[in-house]
Design a protein that fits this description.
seven-stranded mixed beta sheet; three-stranded antiparallel beta sheet; 315 residues
Protein backbone atom coordinates (compact mmCIF):
# COMPACT_ATOMS: atom_id res chain seq x y z
CA UNK A 1 0.00 0.00 0.00
CA UNK A 2 1.35 3.42 -0.95
CA UNK A 3 2.61 5.80 1.73
CA UNK A 4 3.25 9.50 1.10
CA UNK A 5 5.13 12.21 2.97
CA UNK A 6 2.97 15.10 4.26
CA UNK A 7 1.94 17.50 1.50
CA UNK A 8 4.04 20.65 1.15
CA UNK A 9 2.73 24.04 0.04
CA UNK A 10 5.05 25.36 -2.64
CA UNK A 11 6.47 28.88 -2.71
CA UNK A 12 4.08 29.66 -5.54
CA UNK A 13 1.23 28.34 -3.38
CA UNK A 14 2.32 30.47 -0.41
CA UNK A 15 2.30 33.59 -2.61
CA UNK A 16 -1.18 32.74 -3.90
CA UNK A 17 -2.44 32.07 -0.38
CA UNK A 18 -1.15 35.47 0.74
CA UNK A 19 -3.40 37.11 -1.83
CA UNK A 20 -6.38 35.64 -0.02
CA UNK A 21 -5.62 37.95 2.90
CA UNK A 22 -6.46 40.98 0.76
CA UNK A 23 -9.76 39.61 -0.53
CA UNK A 24 -8.70 37.39 -3.41
CA UNK A 25 -10.53 34.10 -3.94
CA UNK A 26 -8.82 30.86 -4.92
CA UNK A 27 -10.05 27.87 -6.86
CA UNK A 28 -8.42 24.43 -6.98
CA UNK A 29 -8.34 23.26 -10.58
CA UNK A 30 -6.95 19.72 -10.79
CA UNK A 31 -4.96 16.90 -9.22
CA UNK A 32 -2.00 15.52 -11.18
CA UNK A 33 -0.42 12.11 -10.57
CA UNK A 34 3.11 11.35 -11.78
CA UNK A 35 6.03 8.95 -11.64
CA UNK A 36 8.93 11.36 -10.98
CA UNK A 37 11.87 10.10 -8.93
CA UNK A 38 13.09 12.02 -5.85
CA UNK A 39 16.20 11.41 -3.79
CA UNK A 40 15.98 11.43 -0.01
CA UNK A 41 17.46 14.93 0.13
CA UNK A 42 14.94 16.19 -2.43
CA UNK A 43 12.04 15.09 -0.23
CA UNK A 44 13.00 17.64 2.41
CA UNK A 45 10.27 20.30 2.81
CA UNK A 46 12.45 23.27 1.85
CA UNK A 47 13.44 21.55 -1.38
CA UNK A 48 9.86 20.50 -2.29
CA UNK A 49 8.67 24.08 -1.72
CA UNK A 50 10.74 25.21 -4.70
CA UNK A 51 8.93 22.86 -7.11
CA UNK A 52 6.89 24.49 -9.88
CA UNK A 53 5.64 21.32 -11.60
CA UNK A 54 5.64 17.55 -11.29
CA UNK A 55 8.76 15.88 -12.64
CA UNK A 56 6.92 13.31 -14.72
CA UNK A 57 3.14 13.91 -14.85
CA UNK A 58 1.10 10.95 -16.09
CA UNK A 59 -2.60 11.63 -15.37
CA UNK A 60 -4.90 14.55 -14.48
CA UNK A 61 -8.11 14.33 -12.49
CA UNK A 62 -10.85 16.80 -11.60
CA UNK A 63 -11.97 17.18 -8.00
CA UNK A 64 -15.24 15.59 -6.92
CA UNK A 65 -15.74 17.64 -3.76
CA UNK A 66 -14.16 20.08 -1.36
CA UNK A 67 -14.77 20.36 2.37
CA UNK A 68 -13.32 22.82 4.83
CA UNK A 69 -12.10 20.80 7.81
CA UNK A 70 -10.70 23.74 9.81
CA UNK A 71 -10.09 27.43 9.20
CA UNK A 72 -6.68 26.56 7.74
CA UNK A 73 -7.26 23.12 6.19
CA UNK A 74 -9.46 21.80 3.40
CA UNK A 75 -10.12 18.25 2.23
CA UNK A 76 -10.12 17.64 -1.53
CA UNK A 77 -11.58 14.43 -2.92
CA UNK A 78 -11.12 12.90 -6.35
CA UNK A 79 -11.43 9.52 -8.01
CA UNK A 80 -8.24 8.15 -9.58
CA UNK A 81 -8.97 5.70 -12.39
CA UNK A 82 -6.87 3.80 -14.92
CA UNK A 83 -9.70 3.54 -17.47
CA UNK A 84 -7.86 5.85 -19.90
CA UNK A 85 -4.38 4.60 -19.01
CA UNK A 86 -2.53 2.76 -21.78
CA UNK A 87 0.71 2.22 -19.86
CA UNK A 88 1.10 1.48 -16.14
CA UNK A 89 3.40 3.44 -13.82
CA UNK A 90 4.53 3.73 -10.22
CA UNK A 91 2.65 6.65 -8.64
CA UNK A 92 5.43 8.50 -6.82
CA UNK A 93 4.17 12.10 -6.82
CA UNK A 94 0.84 13.89 -6.52
CA UNK A 95 0.36 17.62 -7.06
CA UNK A 96 -2.57 20.01 -6.61
CA UNK A 97 -2.97 23.02 -8.89
CA UNK A 98 -4.78 26.26 -8.03
CA UNK A 99 -5.39 29.77 -9.37
CA UNK A 100 -7.17 33.00 -8.61
CA UNK A 101 -10.82 33.05 -9.60
CA UNK A 102 -11.17 34.50 -13.06
CA UNK A 103 -7.68 33.60 -14.26
CA UNK A 104 -7.21 31.53 -17.42
CA UNK A 105 -5.50 28.16 -17.47
CA UNK A 106 -4.89 25.59 -14.76
CA UNK A 107 -2.93 27.85 -12.43
CA UNK A 108 0.21 27.00 -10.46
CA UNK A 109 1.42 23.98 -8.51
CA UNK A 110 0.02 24.84 -5.12
CA UNK A 111 0.93 21.68 -3.19
CA UNK A 112 3.15 18.65 -3.72
CA UNK A 113 3.39 15.27 -2.02
CA UNK A 114 5.90 12.49 -2.82
CA UNK A 115 5.73 8.81 -1.91
CA UNK A 116 7.74 6.94 0.68
CA UNK A 117 6.44 3.69 -0.75
CA UNK A 118 4.80 3.91 -4.19
CA UNK A 119 2.11 1.66 -5.62
CA UNK A 120 2.02 0.51 -9.20
CA UNK A 121 -0.97 1.86 -11.14
CA UNK A 122 -1.67 -0.63 -13.97
CA UNK A 123 -2.99 0.14 -17.43
CA UNK A 124 -6.61 -0.59 -18.21
CA UNK A 125 -7.06 -4.19 -19.36
CA UNK A 126 -10.44 -3.57 -21.00
CA UNK A 127 -12.30 -5.54 -18.35
CA UNK A 128 -12.02 -4.20 -14.79
CA UNK A 129 -10.99 -0.63 -14.04
CA UNK A 130 -8.77 0.16 -11.05
CA UNK A 131 -10.12 3.09 -9.06
CA UNK A 132 -8.76 4.85 -5.98
CA UNK A 133 -10.54 7.48 -3.90
CA UNK A 134 -7.88 10.08 -3.14
CA UNK A 135 -8.37 12.32 -0.09
CA UNK A 136 -5.92 15.22 -0.15
CA UNK A 137 -5.62 17.49 2.89
CA UNK A 138 -4.21 20.89 2.03
CA UNK A 139 -3.34 23.98 4.07
CA UNK A 140 -4.81 27.38 3.21
CA UNK A 141 -4.88 30.79 4.86
CA UNK A 142 -7.18 31.20 7.86
CA UNK A 143 -10.80 31.98 6.88
CA UNK A 144 -9.86 31.73 3.18
CA UNK A 145 -12.67 31.32 0.67
CA UNK A 146 -11.73 28.43 -1.60
CA UNK A 147 -13.62 26.35 -4.15
CA UNK A 148 -12.98 23.70 -6.79
CA UNK A 149 -13.23 24.37 -10.49
CA UNK A 150 -16.45 23.18 -12.09
CA UNK A 151 -16.92 22.25 -15.72
CA UNK A 152 -14.24 19.57 -15.71
CA UNK A 153 -15.11 15.91 -16.13
CA UNK A 154 -15.10 14.76 -12.52
CA UNK A 155 -16.34 11.40 -11.26
CA UNK A 156 -19.05 11.52 -8.63
CA UNK A 157 -18.12 9.48 -5.60
CA UNK A 158 -20.81 7.09 -4.47
CA UNK A 159 -20.75 8.39 -0.91
CA UNK A 160 -21.08 11.95 -2.17
CA UNK A 161 -23.95 10.93 -4.43
CA UNK A 162 -25.74 9.27 -1.51
CA UNK A 163 -25.24 12.40 0.56
CA UNK A 164 -26.61 14.51 -2.28
CA UNK A 165 -29.64 12.24 -2.60
CA UNK A 166 -30.32 12.48 1.11
CA UNK A 167 -30.00 16.25 1.05
CA UNK A 168 -32.35 16.56 -1.91
CA UNK A 169 -34.89 14.22 -0.29
CA UNK A 170 -34.81 16.33 2.87
CA UNK A 171 -35.43 19.44 0.79
CA UNK A 172 -38.33 17.77 -1.04
CA UNK A 173 -39.86 16.62 2.25
CA UNK A 174 -39.57 20.14 3.63
CA UNK A 175 -41.13 21.63 0.50
CA UNK A 176 -43.98 19.09 0.68
CA UNK A 177 -44.74 20.07 4.28
CA UNK A 178 -44.61 23.78 3.39
CA UNK A 179 -46.97 23.27 0.42
CA UNK A 180 -49.43 21.20 2.46
CA UNK A 181 -49.41 23.81 5.21
CA UNK A 182 -50.03 26.62 2.71
CA UNK A 183 -52.90 24.71 1.06
CA UNK A 184 -54.53 23.89 4.41
CA UNK A 185 -54.24 27.52 5.51
CA UNK A 186 -55.86 28.66 2.24
CA UNK A 187 -58.68 26.14 2.64
CA UNK A 188 -59.25 27.31 6.20
CA UNK A 189 -59.34 30.94 5.04
CA UNK A 190 -61.90 30.14 2.33
CA UNK A 191 -63.91 28.09 4.81
CA UNK A 192 -64.14 31.10 7.12
CA UNK A 193 -65.37 33.28 4.24
CA UNK A 194 -68.00 30.98 2.72
CA UNK A 195 -68.90 28.86 5.74
CA UNK A 196 -69.14 25.10 6.01
CA UNK A 197 -70.66 23.76 2.78
CA UNK A 198 -71.68 20.57 4.57
CA UNK A 199 -74.19 22.66 6.56
CA UNK A 200 -76.15 23.50 3.37
CA UNK A 201 -79.57 21.88 3.15
CA UNK A 202 -79.25 21.52 -0.61
CA UNK A 203 -78.19 18.27 -2.22
CA UNK A 204 -75.32 19.80 -4.24
CA UNK A 205 -72.95 20.60 -1.37
CA UNK A 206 -69.69 19.97 -3.18
CA UNK A 207 -69.87 23.19 -5.20
CA UNK A 208 -71.06 26.56 -3.94
CA UNK A 209 -72.20 27.62 -7.43
CA UNK A 210 -74.28 24.43 -7.84
CA UNK A 211 -75.82 24.97 -4.42
CA UNK A 212 -76.81 28.56 -5.26
CA UNK A 213 -78.22 27.46 -8.62
CA UNK A 214 -80.27 24.79 -6.86
CA UNK A 215 -81.77 27.44 -4.57
CA UNK A 216 -82.40 29.71 -7.58
CA UNK A 217 -84.34 26.93 -9.34
CA UNK A 218 -86.76 26.84 -6.39
CA UNK A 219 -87.09 30.60 -6.03
CA UNK A 220 -87.33 31.53 -9.73
CA UNK A 221 -90.87 30.18 -10.35
CA UNK A 222 -92.08 31.84 -7.17
CA UNK A 223 -90.88 35.18 -8.53
CA UNK A 224 -92.18 34.62 -12.06
CA UNK A 225 -95.69 33.77 -10.87
CA UNK A 226 -95.79 36.43 -8.13
CA UNK A 227 -96.20 33.81 -5.45
CA UNK A 228 -93.37 35.15 -3.30
CA UNK A 229 -92.30 38.63 -2.22
CA UNK A 230 -88.70 39.81 -1.94
CA UNK A 231 -89.02 39.43 1.81
CA UNK A 232 -90.16 35.83 1.37
CA UNK A 233 -87.05 35.12 -0.71
CA UNK A 234 -84.79 36.76 1.88
CA UNK A 235 -86.49 34.69 4.58
CA UNK A 236 -86.04 31.47 2.57
CA UNK A 237 -82.32 32.12 2.13
CA UNK A 238 -81.96 33.07 5.80
CA UNK A 239 -83.95 29.93 6.74
CA UNK A 240 -86.47 31.98 8.75
CA UNK A 241 -89.38 31.79 6.31
CA UNK A 242 -92.76 30.75 7.79
CA UNK A 243 -96.01 30.21 5.95
CA UNK A 244 -98.54 33.01 6.64
CA UNK A 245 -101.76 31.35 7.82
CA UNK A 246 -103.72 34.62 7.51
CA UNK A 247 -102.68 34.81 3.86
CA UNK A 248 -104.29 31.45 3.10
CA UNK A 249 -107.45 32.37 5.07
CA UNK A 250 -107.80 35.68 3.24
CA UNK A 251 -107.51 34.01 -0.14
CA UNK A 252 -110.48 31.79 0.76
CA UNK A 253 -112.76 34.76 1.48
CA UNK A 254 -111.14 37.62 -0.42
CA UNK A 255 -113.17 39.98 -2.59
CA UNK A 256 -112.00 41.21 -5.97
CA UNK A 257 -110.87 44.44 -4.34
CA UNK A 258 -108.90 42.45 -1.77
CA UNK A 259 -107.13 40.52 -4.49
CA UNK A 260 -106.20 43.74 -6.31
CA UNK A 261 -104.79 45.19 -3.08
CA UNK A 262 -102.87 41.98 -2.36
CA UNK A 263 -101.27 42.01 -5.82
CA UNK A 264 -100.31 45.69 -5.48
CA UNK A 265 -98.92 45.07 -1.99
CA UNK A 266 -101.37 47.51 -0.37
CA UNK A 267 -103.70 45.03 1.31
CA UNK A 268 -104.39 45.55 5.01
CA UNK A 269 -106.26 42.95 7.03
CA UNK A 270 -109.38 44.45 8.64
CA UNK A 271 -112.16 42.81 10.62
CA UNK A 272 -114.69 45.26 9.15
CA UNK A 273 -113.88 44.12 5.64
CA UNK A 274 -114.84 40.56 6.50
CA UNK A 275 -118.56 41.52 6.57
CA UNK A 276 -118.32 42.61 2.95
CA UNK A 277 -116.17 39.75 1.81
CA UNK A 278 -117.43 37.08 -0.53
CA UNK A 279 -117.33 33.51 0.66
CA UNK A 280 -116.77 30.49 -1.55
CA UNK A 281 -120.54 29.80 -1.42
CA UNK A 282 -121.28 33.36 -2.51
CA UNK A 283 -119.02 32.93 -5.51
CA UNK A 284 -120.66 29.59 -6.40
CA UNK A 285 -124.16 31.17 -6.15
CA UNK A 286 -123.09 34.12 -8.31
CA UNK A 287 -121.78 31.77 -10.98
CA UNK A 288 -125.04 29.72 -10.81
CA UNK A 289 -127.17 32.89 -10.99
CA UNK A 290 -128.80 32.09 -7.64
CA UNK A 291 -126.98 34.53 -5.40
CA UNK A 292 -129.21 36.51 -2.99
CA UNK A 293 -127.79 39.14 -0.66
CA UNK A 294 -128.68 38.09 2.89
CA UNK A 295 -129.61 41.57 4.08
CA UNK A 296 -131.85 42.21 1.06
CA UNK A 297 -133.50 38.82 1.58
CA UNK A 298 -134.29 39.63 5.21
CA UNK A 299 -135.81 42.99 4.24
CA UNK A 300 -138.04 41.35 1.62
CA UNK A 301 -139.30 38.81 4.20
CA UNK A 302 -140.22 41.60 6.65
CA UNK A 303 -142.09 43.59 4.00
CA UNK A 304 -144.23 40.64 2.87
CA UNK A 305 -145.32 39.88 6.49
CA UNK A 306 -146.40 43.44 7.12
CA UNK A 307 -148.47 43.45 3.93
CA UNK A 308 -150.20 40.24 4.98
CA UNK A 309 -151.10 41.71 8.42
CA UNK A 310 -152.48 44.88 6.84
CA UNK A 311 -154.66 42.85 4.50
CA UNK A 312 -156.06 40.71 7.31
CA UNK A 313 -156.93 43.73 9.52
CA UNK A 314 -158.61 45.50 6.67
CA UNK A 315 -161.04 42.80 5.95
Amino acid sequence: MAEFYPAVTTDLGITLAADLLVGEQMVFTKLVAGSGIYTEDETVRTNLQKAEALREPRQEFAFSSIKKETDACVLLKTLLSNISLTEGYRMTEIGVYAKRIGEEGDGILYSLSVAKEADYFPRYNGMAAVEIIEEYYITVSDAAEVTIETGRSAAVLFEDFEKFQEEMQNRLDKMKIEIETAVNNKIAELQRKIGDLSALRTEKKCCLVDAINEIAEVIRPLIEYSLATNQDIDDIIAEVYTDDVDWITMLDIASDRDIELIISGMYEDSAEDETDAATDQDIDDIIAGAYVDEEEGEMEDVAEKEIEEIVENAF
